[in-house]
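Fig. S4 source data, part A: sequence.
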Amino acid sequence: MPIYRVVIDYDRCQGCKNCIKACVMGVLEAIDDMPYAVNPKECRGCEDCVKACPNDAIKIVYEGIA
């Protein structure tokens, strides 16, 4: 099974939460009004969160096979 990691650039993130709304796997949640990958093992690498971010503040990194 592929392993993906969500990387958020907090210098670019404006806290709009579009990425959280776009993630159907529930990987991201808001903590102190900012997105955090609280369920990283659920990421399937679909990049819906990446596409939803208006500030290019999020990316998905392929980590290999488990």
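Fig. S4 source data, part B ends here. The chain has two helices and four strands.
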